[in-house]
Design a protein that fits this description.
alpha/beta; Rossmann fold; 6-stranded parallel β-sheet; 21% strand; binds nicotinamide-adenine-dinucleotide
Amino acid sequence: MTFRTIPSSPSDPLRVVIVGAGGMGRAWLATVADSPEVTLTGIADLDVTLARSAADSAGLPGLAVGAEAVALARQTGAQALINVTVPEAHHPVTTAALFAGLPVLGEKPAAENVSRALSLAAAAEVTGELFMVSQSRRWNPQLAALREMIARLGPIGTLSTAFFRAERFGGFRELMAYPLLVDMAIHAFDAARFLLGAEPVTAYCQSYNPPWSWYAGDANAMVVFEMEGGTRYLYDGSWCSPGATTSWNGAWRASGEKGTAIWDGDHEPVLDADVRAAQPTGPPYSGIAGALQVFVRALQTGEPPSGEVHENVMSLAMVEAAVRSAASGRVERMDAVLELAHAQALREETRADVRDILAGWSSLRDVRAGR
Ligand SMILES: NC(=O)c1ccc[n+]([C@@H]2O[C@H](COP(=O)([O-])OP(=O)(O)OC[C@H]3O[C@@H](n4cnc5c(N)ncnc54)[C@H](O)[C@@H]3O)[C@@H](O)[C@H]2O)c1
């Protein structure tokens, strides 16, 4: 998809507003304040007092604050918006920004469900503005090195992620029906697509809650995705497994025809194969700072970034397919999940221009490939 470019440089940095002053909004505040490529013009939150206290604790007492992101962006001359609100607010906040002529860098997930994410992809097309989802782990240099190793292993039989932690968050996560799948697994699912350079075809999930769990919903899940080309991707995770916890990135193993690559999620990946070791050429940045840099660069060049909403929809669809399979007990086809979401998006869309774009998508294959 083509989008409007915005020139910027260290002497003329991109002016941005952050919306959402919660835990992650504060992390973004620090990242933006540290970046020479962007200038922060304000921070918005429904709770203006929270926005003010976030600015104060970041050492920016004079920063403009407001309750409404687009109004604050207009008032302060911002050129783009960073959306760090709760998932349910991603769709309204990002839609309003795109239609106000502001490109958006949004926290994962793109929206609270695939149907709303498709609506945002269509809104990006109507407006010609960039909407990029920040899947921060895509910018991990060790993940990039693992990807290069995997590319040398020939056909891959199995890729797997083990994610075992014992987190006591309190709050909404402990009340969700599928906290692991809905709040966390998207990072691994997105990384699996990136590592294999392949899209999922089907999903089968068993989700459950161990007797000692302190979560109301299912804290454990095992998901098997059949990927294009036949590789199986296995995600095996838990939020309530004390002892020998894995990295927040999970522990990874890829077994291919010519050998195996493993990554503990925190250190350099290891190649055990009779092939020449890859020269790491990963990005010189990581995490949300990496996403910010990629966003600025994309706006400068017009080159669609990794995480552009059309490309990102499939990672969210993997979450939705896993949840559907957990509930149905059946293997779910990814195409069917996308088609259901598309039909829902058409039913629920309130903007005629966005609906026209959605209606024009005869095949979701093109949409998910980012074409
Ligand atoms: N990449 C990561 O590793 C990572 C980690 C944590 C959270 N996240 C994501 O970041 C996002 C925010 O998470 P959080 O933990 O900071 O949540 P949070 O609940 O702490 O903060 C969200 C803030 O958004 C504000 N808000 C909600 N609707 C709004 C609206 N319409 N306009 C303005 N403000 C609004 C709320 O008042 C709240 O202060 C979520 O999408 C979450 O999934 C990502």
